[in-house]
Amino acid sequence: MDKRILVLTDFSKNALDASKYALELYSEHKCTFYFLNTFREVGYRINSHIHNYAGELSYDIKAPNTIEGFKNLMHTLDLQAKSPNHSYHTISSHSSLLEGVNDTIVKHDIDIVVMGTKGSTSSRTVVFGMNSINIMENITTCPVLAIPEDVDFMPPKQIAFPTDFKTPFKRRELTYLINIAQMHSANIQVLHVKESETLNLLQLGNKKLLETLFKDVEHTFHELEKTSVHDGINNFIDTHDSDMVAFINQKRNFFNRLISKPLTNVLGYRTPVPVLVLKNRI
């Protein structure tokens, strides 16, 4: 089945990097890419508009800067020469970013959202911009893949997956992690930052369940102790050559416990890697 991938853009360099990463990540697979730009304009309102890259615009009122922005983006990516398996659409939406993303996910049955970790207005010292944090925290219907600035695509071979084993895993919430690992023959590095000497019965059961769910993909288990979760994740990524890190965003689960602190503090990696935020689609 075709993948339907939503790529967010504000036409910044980080957004371009994220676009390139998404195209490379799925270069060998049949996909439909939707490139979304949202904007606010005082004085009038228009609905979201979509056009096929190779076709005609479906609206008369041009969104400010988006037409030229998309034209330049398509030229830069040289999309039509990339892959015969890919098709491309651009969308301009007069809405907030979160509204535009949610609307596009519903209308086009999106499988995964890809974006940069910060936009054109973010400080050079900021790792995650507020828009990125908002999308990572509040999009609940599909995974979000956030690409840091200046990250060149390398096929992911080691994907860190931190967990406390306190909540049962569901196959559907791990589907995209498994899918990416299988696409690139990657190993999933299951990381547990220990809070106590041994796992309790619930944690042991959930670890066994995870072994079953990961039976068709390479995976390894790792433990760290005498360190904070934040420092443990950072140090693990540095020392184990992780190419990506994946979290499950679930109420009262590991990721939500992390993001009770500023996300920029939790995920401010010294060695930036893409962040895959998995969702519990109930």
Description:
This protein is an alpha/beta fold and 282 residues long. Helices cover 33% and strands 23% of the residues. The chain has nine helices and eleven strands. It has helices at 13-25, 66-77, 97-108, 130-138, 171-183, 201-213, 229-239, 254-258, 263-266; strands spanning 3-8, 31-39, 49-52, 86-94, 112-116, 144-147, 158-162, 187-193, 219-224, 244-249, 275-279. It has an eleven-stranded mixed beta sheet with strand order 3-4-2-1-5-6-11-10-7-8-9, with helices on both faces. Helix 1 (13-25) links the parallel strand 1 (3-8) and strand 2. The radius of gyration is 19 Å and the shape is elongated. Residues 42-47, 54-62, 252-256 and 259-266 have low confidence and may be disordered.
Keyword list:
2 domains, single chain, 9 helices, 11 strands, 282 residues, alpha/beta, Rossmann fold, elongated
CA(first)-CA(last) distance: 22 Å
Helix content: 25-40%
Q: Could you give the order of strands across the largest sheet?
A: 3-4-2-1-5-6-11-10-7-8-9
CATH architecture of the largest domain: 3-Layer(aba) Sandwich
Order of helices and strands: EHEEHEHEHEEHEHEHEHHE
Global shape = elongated
Rg (CA only): 19 Å
**Annotated CATH topology of the largest domain:** Rossmann fold
Q: What is the CATH C-level name of the largest domain?
A: Alpha Beta
Q: Segments where pLDDT lies below 50 for 5+ residues?
A: 42-47, 54-62, 252-256, 259-266
Counted beta strands: 11
Question: How much of the residues is beta strand, in percent?
Answer: 15-25%
Average pLDDT taken over every residue: 81
> Which structural class is indicated by helix and strand composition?
alpha/beta
How does the major sheet shape up?
11 strands, mixed
Number of helices: 9
Number of domains: 2
CATH superfamily placement of the largest domain: HUPs
